[in-house]
């Protein structure tokens, strides 16, 4: 044990990074054997993410402004010129795509997020606990938690900036110094740019963290010095400088009165009902994942009730009873002033600080109010109508920041705080064991238990890249002309739009698909949803569409990606929205004089619009 503790820095951190990297290679195997033919995650948002990387490279080679998506939503296009620009992740994605390709770049960035999060979490935990072993173990636990694993399977979480930003916030409060203030502002800004949610959550936590220091009489005199006003100004200034390039396009749009379309495209304004849909429920924190190979079979289908959320991605927030036990053990010893907690006031302060953080985060992750008296739940929108209400902070926060709707992601903060408390608990247990063999046995048993609790092995965690024959054929057709694919889902439908965009990488033709809700392109889309109408064919002909690709299997099966992200049986309207023609293949008899069948690929058919003008 001492041999591990005596490994010099930064060699210990390098070993931790490499060990975590090998763990994620094992978890995702056989991904490493075919980085360009398999990707980490399931089809859905991942398809849109890969297309986004491809577009950065494609637009560069074709001298197209990368924020103007003129190859989708034809002929309108989608203009992102006045939307927030995540320039840090865009830069890494672009460079990775240039050096490799879109699939490899996507995989590398996803895989690296695990060792990076393990490392930054370790740095925060070690600063707080001053114990290498427990900090390294809990850093790995946090990185491979169901929360991070599932979110990374869906999109770029970029959670690794959160621990390092909190680290320098604590260093600024504890040690002072302009360097710490600058680094806090820097990493807070980077965190916001790479994932605005976690940067926003840091903003919400700052008053509570500073408040905990003010309550502590041993800390109060220190942080009320004039320096800390200066430090706050320095940190916030650096933060603003880092996020300014991201927000500049939006601010420019405001100045030019060109914000309506940009706000719609970026999804900045969300529906209030989303606060109910994407909030945490009590059992989200207490029940393992349904895809846990050891414990998942024990989890009942609770439907869409008030105690358990129904989204796999947003409502799998399991904390683990082994972590809760260690956290509780640390809290007990802090209250009783046992062990090192009896002689170290800093440790007791840290315990109470992160207990406060965990409680605050749990409250903020909940629905916007607690219903009292008679209440009803709209199962469609998940919105609650109550006779009396106890309003929670997020109800009012949504009025100020309507772009933030998924407060269940506060689960990342809850788990982070619990991991820090658990690191203290594990440290105390290891200190009470006098033999090397006993210490290793404890570490082994904890590792085994937490593996059983946190194992996340859904059958769809990796996806093999296919190249359907219809798209190979389309790629062989000379020229770049507009095509349209049916069903014609909205701009955020993964099973239609994201998948069509994904395969655009193969054929590089213009797509009518991809219109964003609330834009003129989407208003046009709504008029051409039914491909069996003559008026639809006429409109498609008027904008120069050459081919219509009709995916018969999509109409028959409905949206096959929806069940992957549901913890219960989805309502039929989620599987068969209006664009899916109620599960029936459109009857093309009425337009047989306007289109001709060109190719039949069994599951998909291609029609050419007859040009008889």
Structure report:
The protein has 613 residues and is α+β, with helices and mostly antiparallel strands. It has 26 helices and 11 strands. The chain has helices spanning 2-5, 11-28, 45-61, 87-99, 102-129, 132-143, 146-154, 161-175, 178-194, 196-215, 217-223, 226-255, 260-266, 274-277, 312-315, 321-336, 345-365, 393-400, 411-432, 436-454, 469-476, 494-507, 520-526, 534-542, 552-557, 572-575, and strands at 38-40, 68-69, 78-79, 369-377, 384-391, 462-464, 482-486, 510-511, 547-551, 595-600, 604-609. The protein has a 5-stranded mixed β-sheet with strand order 8-7-9-11-10. A hairpin with a 3-residue loop joins strand 10 and strand 11. Helix 16 packs across helix 19. It is elongated and about 90 Å long. The N and C termini lie far apart (83 Å). The model has no long low-confidence stretch (mean pLDDT 92).
Features:
613 residues; alpha+beta; five-stranded mixed beta sheet; two-stranded antiparallel sheet; 11 strands; 55% helix
């Amino acid at each position: 044990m001492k041999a591990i503790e005596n490994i010099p820095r930064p060699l210990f951190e390098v070993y931790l990074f490499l060990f975590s990297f090998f763990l994620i290679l094992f978890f995702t195997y056989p991904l490493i054997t075919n980085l360009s033919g398999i990707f980490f995650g399931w089809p859905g948002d991942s398809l849109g993410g890969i297309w986004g990387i491809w577009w950065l490279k494609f637009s560069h080679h074709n001298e197209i402004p990368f924020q103007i998506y003129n190859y989708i939503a034809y002929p309108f296009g989608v203009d992102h010129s006045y939307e927030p620009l995540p320039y840090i992740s865009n830069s890494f994605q672009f460079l990775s795509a240039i050096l490799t390709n879109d699939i490899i770049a996507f995989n590398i960035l996803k895989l690296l997020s695990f060792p990076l999060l393990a490392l930054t979490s370790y740095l925060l935990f070690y600063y707080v606990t001053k114990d290498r072993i427990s900090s390294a173990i809990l850093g790995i636990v946090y990185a491979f938690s169901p929360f991070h694993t599932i979110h990374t399977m869906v999109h770029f979480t970029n959670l690794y900036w959160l621990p390092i930003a909190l680290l320098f916030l604590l260093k600024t409060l504890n040690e002072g110094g302009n360097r710490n203030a600058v680094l806090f502002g820097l990493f807070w800004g980077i965190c916001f740019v790479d994932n605005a949610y976690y940067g926003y959550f840091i903003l919400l936590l700052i008053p509570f963290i500073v408040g905990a220091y003010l309550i502590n009489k041993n800390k109060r005199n220190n942080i009320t010095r004039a320096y800390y006003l200066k430090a706050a100004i320095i940190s916030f200034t650096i933060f603003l400088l880092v996020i300014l390039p991201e927000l500049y396009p939006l601010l420019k749009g405001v100045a030019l009165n060109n914000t309506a379309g940009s706000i719609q495209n970026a999804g900045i304004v969300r529906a209030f009902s989303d606060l109910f849909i994407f909030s945490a429920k009590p059992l989200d924190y207490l029940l393992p994942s349904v895809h846990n190979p050891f414990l998942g079979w024990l989890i009942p289908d609770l439907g869409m009730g008030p105690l358990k959320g129904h989204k796999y991605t947003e409502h799998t927030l399991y904390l683990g009873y082994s972590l809760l036990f260690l956290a509780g053990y640390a809290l007990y010893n802090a209250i009783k002033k046992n062990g090192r907690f009896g002689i170290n006031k800093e440790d007791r302060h840290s315990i109470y600080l992160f207990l406060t953080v965990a409680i605050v985060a749990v409250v903020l992750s909940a629905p916007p109010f607690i219903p009292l008296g008679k209440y009803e739940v709209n199962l469609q929108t998940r919105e609650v109508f109550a006779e009396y209400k106890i309003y929670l902070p997020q109800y009012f926060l949504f009025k100020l920041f309507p772009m933030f709707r998924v407060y269940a992601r506060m689960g990342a903060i809850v788990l982070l705080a619990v991991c820090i408390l658990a690191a203290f608990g594990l440290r105390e247990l290891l200190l009470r064991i006098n033999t090397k063999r006993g210490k290793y046995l404890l570490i082994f048993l904890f590792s085994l238990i937490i593996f059983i609790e946190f194992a996340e092995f859904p059958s769809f965690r990796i996806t093999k890249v296919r190249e359907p024959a219809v798209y190979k054929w389309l790629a062989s057709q000379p020229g770049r002309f507009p095509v349209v694919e049916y069903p014609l889902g909205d701009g955020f439908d993964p099973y239609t739009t994201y998948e069509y965009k994904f395969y655009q990488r193969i054929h590089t033709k213009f797509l009518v698909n991809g219109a964003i809700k609330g834009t003129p392109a989407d208003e046009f889309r709504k008029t051409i949803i039914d491909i069996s109408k003559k008026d639809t064919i006429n409109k498609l002909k008027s904008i120069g569409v050459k081919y219509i690709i009709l995916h018969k299997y999509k109409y028959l099966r409905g949206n096959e990606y929806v069940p992957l992200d549901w913890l219960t049986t989805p309502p039929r309207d989620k599987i068969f929205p209006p664009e899916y023609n109620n599960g029936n293949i459109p009857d093309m008899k009425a337009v047989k004089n306007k289109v001709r069948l060109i190719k039949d690929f069994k599951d998909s058919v291609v029609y050419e619009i007859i040009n008889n003008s």
